[in-house]
Design a protein that fits this description.
Shape: globular
Distance between the termini: 28 Å
Keywords: Kinase, Phosphoprotein, Transferase
CATH superfamily: Histidine kinase-like ATPase, C-terminal domain
Number of domains: 1
Helix content: 10-25%
Catalytic activity: ATP + protein L-histidine = ADP + protein N-phospho-L-histidine
Strand order of the largest sheet: 1-2-4-3
CATH topology: Heat Shock Protein 90
Strand content: 15-25%
Number of strands: 4
Order of helices and strands: HEEHEE
Largest sheet: 4 strands, antiparallel
Organism: Panagrolaimus superbus
Radius of gyration: 16 Å
EC number: 2.7.13.3
Pfam family, one: HATPase_c
């Protein structure tokens, strides 16, 4: 399921920055003080107006015309659903014609410290 998160976020970064020369996509990671994990995918693509950020993760919600960028409008909704099921969350920052940055957080593995070596 986490694989699908990466496929959607990286796929969107490629799709929305494809018209840039050069297109730039960056992936970052930072371990959090609570032991959780924060990942970031950013691009220099189309971006979006933050006034519409509340619509980003809704099913069939699109901030760009389908004729400009193909898609179904379910990718980010699926990403949010997967992350929520894993106890995580996702949020975004963007500026039109500058690019977008998507951050997602996953908590430390439950019971990771309680598991001993396999017998």
């Amino acid at each position: 399921m986490i694989r699908q998160v990466w496929l959607n976020l990286l796929g969107n970064a490629v799709k929305y920055s494809g018209n840039r020369e050069p297109a730039k996509i960056r992936v970052d990671y930072q371990q959090q003080p609570d032991g959780g994990h924060q990942f970031t995918v950013s691009d220099n693509g189309a971006g979006f107006d933050m006034a519409y950020a509340g619509k980003l993760f809704g099913v069939f919600q699109r901030l760009h015309k389908a004729s400009d960028y193909p898609g179904t409008g379910i990718g980010l909704a699926s990403v949010r659903r997967v992350l929520t099921r894993h106890g995580g969350r996702i949020w975004a920052e963007a500026e039109p014609d500058v690019g977008a940055t998507f951050h997602f957080y996953l908590p430390p593995a439950v019971d990771a410290d309680k598991q001993g070596p396999s017998a």
